[in-house]
Amino acid sequence: MTRSLLTRVLTALAAVFVIAPAARAQVSVEFPLTLDNLPTYNRVNGLSVPVTPTLTVGDDRVVVSPAITYRSHLGKIDPSLSIVGQFTADSSIGVTLTGSRGTFTNDSWIRANIVNSLTSLGLGSDSRNYFRGDRGEARLTSSLHLPGNVEAATVFVGARAERDWSTGWRTGAGNGPFSFLNRSDTANGIERPNPEIDAGHITSVIGGGHLEYAGLPASLMANVLIEAAGKTPLGGNFQQVTLDEGASVRTVAGQHLDVRGHIVATATSSFTPRQRYAYVGGSGSLATVDLLNMGGDHLYFLDALYVVPINNFEVPILGSPYIAPHFSMGAAAVGGFGRPVQNIGVRLGVSIFTLDYVVNPRTHKSDFGAGISLGP
User: What pTM does this model have?
Assistant: First the structure.
């Protein structure tokens, strides 16, 4: 982490929290195991192993989480620090301060961490592009208590400062970590080049929110991030909105429609640094396109499955299988959304395991593959 970034984070901490009262409160230390701090594997970091103790002061009013993460392929140990403080007893208003050196991506929406790790190690199929950076954030958060079946609703505003640089390899022979399959595949395997970014500093104002709704007949999850950057490596400013959503609508006889979508839209594209590009294509999104073959500061993706359970048949341990007509559509480009690519097909699944066959109706290119699905 740069000295100036660390200084800003520590100054913010001193301004927000009063140390003396906290020192008199009871402090507990734990090493929680969650989905967010499990080891991961990808084609840039190799194996990432985090060590994340959590210090809780008093009745959860202040939670401090220092961490170090070892990245085997880079040979780096990355530090990070997160401090979450609550201003109110019901935790409705709080502040989150974070600072870290790490490997960042805009493509985690395609696959969950555990799925991307398994496909990277087993198939060499890493559905993310990466850059390295030092990043500090301060967020003022508010939990909204909405009526009905809203399980969680939060909004936030804040500021972000970062310094970024490229990582991985761009051209020629790669030097990727180990994978069981596709070790020399430069289009879809572990040796796929990582795109270069525009190295330098970005300072921005950020805002957004998170919503979870669970009712009848539908459930919904949505995340939105708005960023307005005043300083970029390209000299100008940009404004970007990222929306990620997943929904499930129950119909009849145990059938349901699962929909997920992802949208990135950017103003003043001439000043958008490449570390704010998002990518689509390949297994996990548009299977008839090479992995992350389309990218830019505009992206849209829609995926829909109509799931029909086969209740009169059961696979031992795994349960009843299902069949699902499958439709997906998307594109990404710089300065606009680009021409849509469509995939139409069918999925056969049981538990988390899937078999998919899709075809592009315009080009007639098809793809058949097996995978793991953890949700809509």
Answer: 0.89
